Amino acid sequence: MFDYLKLEVRRTLRDVGFVIGGIAMPVLMYLLFTNLGADDGTWKTGAMVGMAGYGAVGCALNTGGGVAEDRAIGWLRQLRVTPMTPRQVVVGRTLTGSVTVVPAILAVLAAGGLLNGVRLAVWQWAAIAVLLWLGSVPFTLLGLGNGYRLTGQTTGVTNMACNLGLAVLGGLWFPVALFPHWLRTVSAYTPTYRFAELGTSVASGHAPALGAVAVLSAWLLAFGSYAVLSYRRSGRTV
Question: Which of 54, 62, 126, 157 could tie 172 with a disulfide, CB 3.0–4.6 Å?
Answer without folding.
Answer: 54
